[in-house]
Hints:
The chain is mainly alpha-helical. The protein has 10 helices and no strands. The chain has helices at about 5-15, 20-30, 35-45, 55-80, 85-90, 110-125, 130-145, 150-185, 190-195, 200-204. Helix 3 (about 35-45) packs antiparallel against helix 4 (about 55-80), helix 3 (about 35-45) packs parallel to helix 6 (about 110-125) and helix 4 runs antiparallel to helix 6 (about 110-125). The longest helix is centred in the C-terminal third of the chain and has 36 residues, at about 150-185. The chain is elongated.
Amino acid sequence: MDSSGLYLDITDFARSTPAWVRSASEFWTEYGLFAFGVLFMAVWWRSRSCPDPRAVALAVLAPLATAVAYAVSELVKSSVDEERPCRAVAGAAASLITCPATGDWSFPSNHATIAGAAAVALALAVPRLALPAVSLALLMAFSRVFVGVHYPHDVALGLLLGASLAALTVLALTGPTVRVVAAMRASGIRAAVLITGPDPARQG
């Protein structure tokens, strides 16, 4: 798989953008994943007041599904051993951020995998978050090429890998997690209720 031509086009374009665009891209590519963490927390907190335990289950599964996707991405990365384009592509401009060391392989992009998984998991938990979450994931994936540390195919397949694994994980675990949440709510144990929110039946 060779997307080095597109990589050169994007990185050349990056070098032609204003300094503030490059600075914003560098910041986003380094810290943008924290936005998904904030969304995870907000969705979980909101779900605690919902009578339906499924809302809590989906909120809890969102970060778990993302973690599963990241773990699989690391396994794939360690078996493919693709060198970073900022070191491998002849004639490429210097990357906007430090090129990762050899051994921190390029395929797939962990950032794109995490972003793709988080976007899908959040969309399943709160459908109206689908558009902003997917937009953030695409922006994260593009930024990894823009700053010069990934090929386009790294991020494209990373997004696909993360989205697919998140959907499968949520689909497989929603039923059991709903039952666990319902049992924790029904127990009335303070720590359990803190995590899941109160049981509407006990409140009534």
